[in-house]
């Protein structure tokens, strides 16, 4: 929704520079903030401190948040807007966090001028986040208060403008935005912005109590707009709808400059983005753009036609200007009147009908009738002679659970109507109209003739229309497929033998589902932090619901060149693979620079998130661990041998093994995978990818990889599952790494002691010995000595198989110095949920 969705925002606020002092990102009890210091968010993007506006008395201070990394100070939030504090070097004001978790701004005498009015036990902290949100958090991480719910004149990415809020009494729990009173006066001005308190379906800008601007009533659209801030930066405006509430929010693409919506002191709603070249705020959009966009400008039954190059006022169908002279002179306040009176009588409608007006912003002053179908909504208006119009929307298109619908009816003058077009968020307005012919009467002969002609014409028209609609659907479907192939082809165009993906990989080779970018924006709550479940070098991972199914969405970073290669690998490889122990790629999305992959969602996340977490590892008893070992082995065997391709994963590790609801494993993250030809056994690369501790020595040191490289990684993973110890741990009982520790325990006949203490009550000694020996066979120094995965799977399933004795593992004795140097040159992952790590050799 933003204007035709409440689109635009902001005024440049020029403030005197104040040199900030270095500080961390939080305030704790007993350590107040004084005017000489600031609190700076972790990334350095925002600062919290005291400031004096331009041209104001320097002794008059306000507590605010501003952008910290641009040269032109721009305040985005002010605490004490109505109660500035006097500054004095001898007795300065302060902001403190009390032992009851309350933030309080006090003057020199201790008089409290502003407070969060929070009371909670425990040692809370006030943290300034990188989003610009000041949050008071309890020790357990619960948010007790946040500045985002108490906006000033600025809307930042991640902030929410509530349209519908069902908690409590069903009223809004957040405050309206309020403009500054003047460029140098942060006190609340006369203009405010927020949701309509009567309907909770639309938002307004008011001047005092008088409406100035109004959005279209929410009609189920989830994406309100996409604005291009630069050649590579986008702004996504979305309406997020849940069972509990509905709100407007927006987010930025990776690498976008600072962007904000601002309600200016003059009542304009602006969208601004920071231009680093000119060191100034550039206005991407403003509302109102035209006079006829102002609330009620075209009068009763008039509408603003915004589809014209120069929008102007027009009369609705069946109406004419109330005063033709004033109308032609550009004065539209008296609006329009009916050309012919309605014939509505005791029969509930007489000769009246309803004219469909598509692409309209529905008028104000409606009555919201709940729980009606489209037919029931039409009947509700038709049976009531005082109903002049109605509009229906299925809000479930916006993600509402339970099939929520919205029926709006009007019984008075139609005010503040606009023709926007369907693509701009408009909907069909059904207007009651007199059923008269051009002469103003309907003769009996004409009526009888119509009884004969009309059915014939109607049937013929329906047949023709149906044919046209079917042709349009087919055309659109073909065009959509061609467009999907074109987008995918741009990504796959680079695939070739150099990447190990073979030749001929074009978009036409794949029948692969595409998801609309708008649907992903809505499903991820506009890529909100709350939906984010992981992050890595290639981008971020979000949990979402698409078509009623929980999914994981990987949003690839545009800043990573490898991200495009990963996207290509995932689509080309996973789309061709089907195995119960490989994660399923469900769909993808390509929109401009945005590339996203949609996977099945794994509720138990990655193996390492449970295996190495002392509070969760008890969930993995030995039977579950043994099944995970066999499942990963089966999946790897499929990649190496049983699929129609030979695929080297190259980054097998605990973080890339996902667990479903039953703790069954699925190998994930094929971004660094390579495909071998039928007669190819190994390859060499100048770019080493992977994670230290899992990489075979010949690969890490010489760039040579093969299926035996994956076997080595599996051996390390197997030993981690048995012991519950990370391979990256440097000192294990005096040994430099997990593999050397396991090798020594096995040589001394103590392999049973390798078992994780948390599984001693559930493990079988024979299986611990089996898995330990298989693991040591997989990590042998010479790749040729390592078994194939077919032998590994057979050994794990058939415990009577006689196993050879393992030779000395890699990373031992003579290579220790080399391996330490190699480790220093490899970039290691610290995020267990995400993507592969990469480092040039």
Automatic annotation (TrEMBL):
CDD domains: B_lectin, PAN_AP_plant, STKc_IRAK. Residues 1-23 form the signal peptide. Residues 527-803 form the Protein kinase domain. The chain crosses the membrane at residues 452-473. Keywords: ATP-binding, Cell membrane, Disulfide bond, EGF-like domain, Glycoprotein, Kinase, Membrane, Nucleotide-binding, Receptor, Serine/threonine-protein kinase, Signal, Transferase, Transmembrane, Transmembrane helix. One of its GO terms (biological process) is response to other organism. Its EC number is 2.7.11.1. Residues 24-149 form the Bulb-type lectin domain. It is a single-pass type I membrane protein. Pfam families: B_lectin, PAN_2, PK_Tyr_Ser-Thr, S_locus_glycop. Gene3D superfamilies: Bulb-type lectin domain, Phosphorylase Kinase, domain 1, Transferase(Phosphotransferase) domain 1. It is an enzyme of class 2 (transferase). It catalyses: L-threonyl-[protein] + ATP = O-phospho-L-threonyl-[protein] + ADP + H(+); L-seryl-[protein] + ATP = O-phospho-L-seryl-[protein] + ADP + H(+). It is found in: Cell membrane. Residues 344-434 form the Apple domain. ATP binds at residue 554. One of its GO terms (cellular component) is plasma membrane. InterPro entries: Bulb-type_lectin_dom, Bulb-type_lectin_dom_sf, Kinase-like_dom_sf, Pan_app, Prot_kinase_dom, Protein_kinase_ATP_BS, S_locus_glycoprot_dom, Ser-Thr/Tyr_kinase_cat_dom. GO terms for molecular function: ATP binding; protein serine/threonine kinase activity. PROSITE patterns: BULB_LECTIN, PAN, PROTEIN_KINASE_ATP, PROTEIN_KINASE_DOM, PROTEIN_KINASE_ST. PANTHER family: G-TYPE LECTIN S-RECEPTOR-LIKE SERINE_THREONINE-PROTEIN KINASE RKS1, RECEPTOR-LIKE SERINE/THREONINE-PROTEIN KINASE SD1-8. Belongs to the protein kinase superfamily. Ser/Thr protein kinase family. This is Receptor-like serine/threonine-protein kinase. It comes from Urochloa decumbens.
């Amino acid at each position: 929704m933003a204007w035709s969705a409440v689109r635009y925002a902001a005024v440049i606020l020029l403030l005197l520079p104040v040199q900030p002092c270095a500080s961390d990102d939080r305030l704790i009890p007993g350590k107040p903030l004084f005017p000489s210091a600031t609190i700076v968010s972790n990334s350095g993007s925002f600062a919290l401190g005291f400031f004096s506006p331009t041209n104001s008395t320097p002794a008059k201070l306000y507590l605010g948040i501003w952008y910290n990394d641009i040269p032109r100070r721009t305040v985005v939030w002010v605490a004490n807007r109505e109660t500035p504090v006097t500054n004095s070097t001898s007795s300065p004001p302060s902001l403190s966090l009390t032992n009851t978790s309350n933030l309080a701004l006090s003057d020199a005498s201790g008089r409290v001028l502003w407070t969060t009015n929070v009371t909670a036990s425990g040692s809370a902290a006030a943290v300034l986040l990188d989003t610009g949100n000041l949050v008071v958090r309890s020790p357990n991480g619960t948010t007790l208060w946040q500045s985002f719910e108490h906006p000033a004149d600025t809307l930042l990415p991640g902030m929410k403008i509530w349209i519908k809020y069902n908690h409590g009494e069903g009223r809004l729990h957040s405050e309206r935005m309020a403009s500054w009173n003047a460029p140098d006066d942060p006190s609340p001005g006369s203009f405010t912005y927020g949701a309509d308190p009567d309907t909770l379906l639309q938002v307004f800008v008011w001047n005092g109590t008088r409406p100035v601007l109004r959005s279209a009533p929410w009609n189920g659209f989830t994406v309100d707009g996409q604005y291009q801030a630069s050649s590579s930066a986008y702004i996504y405006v979305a309406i997020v709808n849940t069972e509990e509430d509905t709100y407007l929010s927006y987010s930025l693409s990776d690498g976008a400059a600072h962007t904000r919506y601002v309600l200016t002191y003059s009542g304009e709603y602006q969208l601004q983005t920071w231009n680093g070249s000119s060191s100034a705020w550039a206005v991407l959009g403003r509302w109102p753009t035209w006079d006829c966009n102002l609330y009620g400008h075209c009068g009763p039954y008039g509408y603003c036609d915004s589809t014209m190059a120069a929008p102007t006022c027009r009369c609705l169908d069946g109406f004419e200007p109330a005063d033709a002279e004033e109308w032609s002179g550009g004065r539209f306040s008296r609006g329009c009147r009916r050309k012919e009176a309605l014939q509505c009588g005791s029969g509930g409608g007489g000769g009246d009908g309803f004219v469909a007006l598509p692409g309209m912003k529905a008028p104000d002053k409606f009555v919201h009738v709940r729980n009606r179908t489209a037919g029931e909504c039409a009947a509700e208006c038709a049976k009531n002679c005082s109903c002049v119009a109605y509009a229906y929307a299925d809000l479930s298109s916006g993600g509402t659970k339970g099939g929520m619908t919205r029926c709006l009816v009007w019984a008075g003058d139609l005010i503040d109507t606009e023709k926007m077009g369907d693509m701009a968020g408009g909907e069909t307005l059904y207007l009651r109209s007199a059923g008269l012919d051009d002469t103003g009467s309907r003769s009996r002969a004409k009526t009888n003739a119509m009884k004969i002609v009309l059915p014939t014409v109607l049937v013929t028209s329906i047949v023709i229309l149906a044919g046209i609609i079917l042709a349009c659907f087919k055309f659109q479907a073909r065009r959509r497929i061609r467009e999907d192939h074109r987008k995918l082809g741009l990504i796959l165009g680079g695939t070739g033998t150099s990447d190990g993906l073979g030749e001929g990989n074009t978009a036409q080779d794949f029948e692969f589902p595409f998801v609309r970018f708008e649907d992903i924006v809505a499903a991820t709550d506009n890529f909100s932090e709350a939906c984010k479940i992981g992050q890595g070098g290639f981008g971020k991972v979000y949990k979402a619901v698409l078509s009623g199914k929980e999914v994981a969405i990987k949003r690839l970073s545009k800043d990573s060149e490898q991200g495009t290669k990963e996207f290509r690998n995932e689509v080309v490889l996973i789309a061709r693979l089907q195995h119960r122990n490989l994660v399923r790629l469900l769909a993808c999305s390509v929109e401009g620079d945005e590339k996203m992959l949609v996977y099945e969602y794994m509720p138990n996340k990655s193996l390492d998130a449970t295996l190495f977490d002392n509070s969760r590892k008890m969930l993995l008893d030995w039977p579950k661990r043994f099944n995970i070992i066999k499942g990963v082995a089966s999946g790897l065997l499929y990649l190496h041998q049983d699929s129609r391709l030979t695929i080297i994963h190259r980054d097998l590790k605990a973080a890339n093994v996902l667990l479903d609801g039953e703790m069954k494993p699925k190998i994930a993250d094929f971004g660094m995978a390579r495909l071998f030809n039928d007669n190819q056994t190994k390859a060499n690369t100048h770019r080493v990818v992977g994670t230290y501790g899992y990489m075979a020595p010949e690969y890490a040191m010489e760039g040579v990889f093969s299926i035996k490289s994956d076997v080595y990684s599996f051996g390390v993973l197997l030993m981690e599952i048995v012991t519950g110890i990370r391979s990256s741990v440097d000192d294990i009982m005096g040994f430099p790494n997990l593999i050397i520790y396991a090798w020594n325990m096995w040589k001394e006949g103590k392999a049973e002691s390798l078992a994780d203490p948390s599984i001693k009550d559930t493990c079988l000694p024979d299986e611990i010995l089996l898995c330990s020996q298989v693991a040591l066979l997989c990590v042998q120094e010479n790749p040729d000595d390592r078994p194939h995965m077919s032998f590994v799977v057979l050994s794990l399933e058939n415990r009577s198989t006689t196993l050879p004795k393992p030779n000395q593992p890699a990373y031992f004795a003579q290579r220790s110095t080399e391996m330490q140097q190699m480790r220093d040159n490899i970039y290691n992952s610290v995020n267990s949920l995400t993507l592969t790590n990469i480092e040039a050799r």
